[in-house]
Automatic annotation (TrEMBL):
InterPro entries per the UniProt record, alphabetical: Ribosome_recyc_fac, Ribosome_recyc_fac_dom, RRF_sf
Pfam families: RRF
GO MF annotations in UniProt: ribosomal large subunit binding
Swiss-Prot/TrEMBL keywords: Cytoplasm, Protein biosynthesis
Source organism phylogeny: Bacteria, Pseudomonadati, Pseudomonadota, Alphaproteobacteria, Rhodobacterales
Naturally occurring in which organism (per UniProt): Cognatishimia activa
CDD domains (UniProt xref): RRF
Protein name: Ribosome-recycling factor
Location, primary (coarse class): cytoplasm
Annotated gene: frr
Subcellular locations according to the entry: Cytoplasm
GO process terms (BP): cytoplasmic translational termination
Residue span(s) of domain Ribosome recycling factor: 23-185
Family of the protein in this entry: Belongs to the RRF family.
């Protein structure tokens, strides 16, 4: 009989947490009709010869529910920040006021809300696939240990533990998706 097998659940949990974290970041970038500083996180500005996140070239504020402002620190970057926002695909038309860029968030129509709901669903499915890939890696470790002499009872025990972990994370993804879709459809 081989030495006692120990599944590295910390590593598997960390990887599943990474999938959840990535999902939350993707959900934050979805515009729901309410202003949020997080919606600008994926936008990069060509500043000083490298691509830089917007929050590193100016202060991002949400002064009211339908407005985001960016106070750009370097006057020479205002045009580049405005261009980055226009080209980001957010569908927001920036308005300049000196070094302050104002981003009015338009009302979402019903059709756009449905499209955003579908995009949220795609993000959630991507997270589920990532979690299932982690599960598969864990199951492969268990099968390898079985081939190295682990008992069948231990194999079943580890497989059920792996499945419980996976199910809990899939449920978290489903709950997050449900909450995001409710937020998107809220008028």
């Amino acid at each position: 009989m081989s030495e006692e097998f120990e599944l590295d659940t910390d590593d598997l949990t960390r990887r599943m947490d990474g999938a959840m974290s990535n999902l939350k970041t993707e959900f934050a970038s979805l515009r729901t009709g309410r202003a949020s500083a997080a919606m600008l996180e994926p936008v990069q500005v060509d500043a000083y010869g490298s691509m830089t996140p917007i929050n590193q070239v100016g202060t991002v504020n949400v002064p009211e529910p339908r407005m985001v402002t960016i106070n750009v620190w370097d006057k020479g970057l205002v045009g580049k920040v405005e261009k980055a926002i226009r080209e980001s695909g957010l569908g927001i038309n920036p308005q300049l006021n000196g070094t302050i860029i104002m981003l009015p968030i338009p009302e979402l129509n019903e059709e756009r809300r449905r499209e955003l709901g579908k995009v949220a669903g795609q993000y959630a499915e991507s997270a589920r696939v990532s979690i299932r890939n982690v599960r598969r890696d864990g199951m492969d470790q268990i099968k390898k240990a079985k081939n190295d002499g682990m008992s069948e009872d231990d194999q079943k025990l580890w497989e059920s533990e792996m499945q419980e972990l996976t199910d809990s994370y899939i449920k978290n993804v489903d709950d997050a998706l449900e909450a995001k879709q409710a937020e998107i459809m809220q008028v």
